[in-house]
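Posting for a labmate who doesn't have an account.
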Amino acid sequence: MSKNKNKKKNKNLPLRRTELGQKVRRNGNIFLHIGKTGGTSVGMVIKELKSQGCKNLPVKVGHSFTLQDILGVNPAAKVSFLLRDPADRFVSGFNSRLRSGRPAHEHVWSAAEAAIYAFFPTANDLAEALYSSDERRLSAAHFAMSHNGHLRRGYQFYFGSVEALKQAEASIGTVAQTHQLDKVMEAIFAPAGVTPADLGAFSRHAHAAPRPPAKLSDEAAANLRRYLAAEYELYEFILANHVK
């Protein structure tokens, strides 16, 4: 069986039954990659350092798994991650799939995504439709939110609730916002003997969007703040309690 087929087969397995789960069990220094927060840059550095023979590197856990999945495999793990304003994540996630993941990846659209982007050419169009009085646009908007992987997997997916985060407080490692990427990188690579000067040799911008996103309208921004209320609750709790 090819490597790609193995990846697809393992995608639906619980973390404890995957090769990644075995790494998590052996190494408690975990980086949880929340989509559209800058984690691809961390993965690139891990890959490059591994190719150089570096040991004791952090384990990067991808989009499909949660904090509880990780702690279910290794209760002693320290889980670090990056954080981003939910509306910014929404725009970045929409635009990333609009580009089919390029430049860092290339994943062709699903049939659902083709329909979404035919209906909503921009992130602003989708955000403005979230509370539309037009039932067709409203239905299409909610379909779009549930059929884009980056949009449907938010902080609720990764952490559950504020109460769940409180219970897992001792397991939270270094947390920073996307623009503070260096802070997380320095913390998770320190056990491998990688210094800030070493990290400076790596590009942090390999996965940057080709151009800055267009600004959201007032209506779109207000709709997102309302629609993503539970996301903002988690985001603001983490900012207040885990970002220093």
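Reply:
Got it, the structure tokens are right above this. The beta strands are 29-32, 59-61, 78-83, 172-177.
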